[in-house]
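I have a small job for you when you get a moment. Would you make up a two-line entry for one protein for me to read? No commentary is needed, just the two lines. Write everything out right here, beneath this request.
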Amino acid sequence: MAKLDVVGCLPSKLLGVQRDLNEKWSGPDGVLWLERTILMLKGENPLEAVARGPAWADEIRAQARRKLKKFFGRLQVDPVPGVWTPEFLENAAKYNMHPVFFPELVLAEDLELKDYTMPEIWLYKQIREGKVNVDAVTLKRRWCLADFSIGVDYTDGSQVFPNDPWAPIIERLRCDLKVVGKYDNTPRGSRFTITPKEWDDVVLAYMASALRVTRAQTCLERAGEFNFIGNVYDSNRGRFNMWEWFEDVFEDSRRLCCGDRRYGGLAGVCYYSSDYRDDSIAGRPLVSF
């Protein structure tokens, strides 16, 4: 019989497994051991007890779970990104940018969710015909910062988002740097009358800098993301008679837009040219992590 390689009274391989199990069972700070043992003794899955972060981070996850539960039941929400700190989020909040968590989900045409407003059939028809990429209704699992600024009803093009924190940056781009256009009655800091090309080429980069993130992380929302945020997180979406530009391309270089309550609100989708300047269409940054 081969001699056992032992450490104390246990074979070294078994001891290594035991130590590995203890570390994983206990979590990084050892606080999970009791919670997981109690779950096991109840006949429940002990791995449902997950490692906790700082209290502020746990509360962000808990808020997301509560929002998602209404439509999806109990979902696992990932830990917040490591680059987030209270100071980082406080700076983002100055621009009405707040955390949202997206599960991995395709907002398919046949998806049935109680009390959820799905995109209209027209969008799915364009996807089937290859005019819009399926990414428009595909949610990628991740944390984001979304713009919770409250919209406004269209009047004559002189309307602005109330107390818009992005107004000073937009005004500088229009008046000092002269890289964003406007109409005669467009307020200098208004996020209306900005073309999708100007959002892409200039505006989003300056917003990213203010948020202390990269331009690569920052884009306009996709149609499905706007729809999901409006259903799950932000009840002000789709309530006004205004449109919002999306990241999604229609056919060649045209862009999708959505949000006007007169044309379906969260459900309605339309498109215009990417260099189209319209005083009823605004936009929002979305930052991915």
